[in-house]
Amino acid sequence: MLLEVNDLSLSLKRAGKYSKILDGISFQVAQGETLGIVGESGCGKSMTALSLMQLLPDKARLGGKVDLQGEQITSFSKRKLEKIRGNQMSMIFQDPLTSLNPLHTVGTQVEESLILHTKKSKQERRDRVLHLLRAVGLPRAEELIDEYPHQLSGGMRQRVMIAIAMACEPQLLICDEPTTALDVTVQAQILELMNDIKRQTKMGIIMITHDMGVVAEVCDRVIVMYAGKIVEEAPVIELFQNPKHPYTQGLLDSIPKLGERKKKLGSIPGTVPTPGNMPAGCRFADRCIHAMDICRSTLPPMINILENHQTACWLYDEKEAKNDGSARSTE
Ligand code: SF4
Ligand code: MG
């Protein structure tokens, strides 16, 4: 397995005390597979990515285990981590403008990780940079290499970010909302590029998004996060055809159907509970139209729907369904 995440937890210090941002996160990514992580903002998607990269504030408490190609990277020293970041695993962020250095040329920034992680000569590096710029569909690579980020459009900048991330041929690429800041046409082009990259390499990709449309476009398998926990996991087609968790159902309902006006994800009434104010039972209970008594008192366990489809919801617990069936039918 390329990536194995086991019982990952993250606590951050806020206003003098620690609160849990991520709780019991476990998943795997195989070589060549694109795993979607989906949920509204504030559900812990980006924090999961930053925890994998171990790009966390100083006082963060990280628990659990992350294995990348059989190596437990959660026990790595800072120095060893620097060796794998940008090399074995890379990350692309939402906003290409703030991620690029305005003072350095495109060429210098793409070359940086080649200097850090390879023994290539100057000429070899230049050739590789040109190759990368062309591979991500950028025109006039020879000129672009000497241009600065502000001379580029948003879509071009995101292509540069992808070129940087791809420079050392990482085994794992983490993309955090890579198309959110782009307009719809450019968004489609970048997703197409991601699919090309996926076909051409054996890279594992984690695609973080709040957009079910993006999930449908590029993902093989999906985990749905809510308030710092995984609430559902399934292959992409199964998830779209047979969503089980009321939260997943809500997310899918908010996708505009053909001919319908675009609805916002926020069409599920209510908001995500904040860390430090987590309810004792199911974290979605306040927004769930199916909530039963047990939902408010006890956190639902992961329940197998199919071999590769799990959800954390009391509705699918056989014993609970019998006990509480009456409560539900009176809703
Ligand atoms: Fe709704 Fe209960 Fe399922 Fe939570 S466990 S999603 S409150 S039915
Ligand atoms: Mg985010």
Quick synopsis:
The protein contains 13 helices and twelve strands. With 331 residues, the chain is an alpha/beta fold. It is found in: Cell membrane.
Describe the protein:
This protein is of the alpha/beta class and 331 residues long. It has two domains: 3-88 and 170-329, Rossmann fold (3-Layer(aba) Sandwich), CATH 3.40.50.300; 99-164, no CATH class. The chain is built from 13 helices and twelve strands. The protein has helices at 45-53, 78-84, 96-99, 106-117, 122-135, 141-144, 154-166, 184-200, 212-218, 236-241, 246-253, 293-297, 318-329; strands at residues 3-14, 17-29, 34-38, 61-68, 71-72, 89-92, 172-176, 204-209, 221-226, 229-235, 302-306, 309-312. It has an eight-stranded mixed sheet, sandwiched between helices. A four-stranded antiparallel sheet has the order 2-1-4-5, with helices on one face. Helix 4 crosses helix 5 (122-135). The protein is globular and about 70 Å long. The relative contact order is 0.14. The protein binds iron/sulfur cluster and magnesium ion. Residues 245-246, 282, 284-285, 288, 290-292, 295, 300, 313-315 line the site of iron/sulfur cluster. GO terms for molecular function: ATP binding.
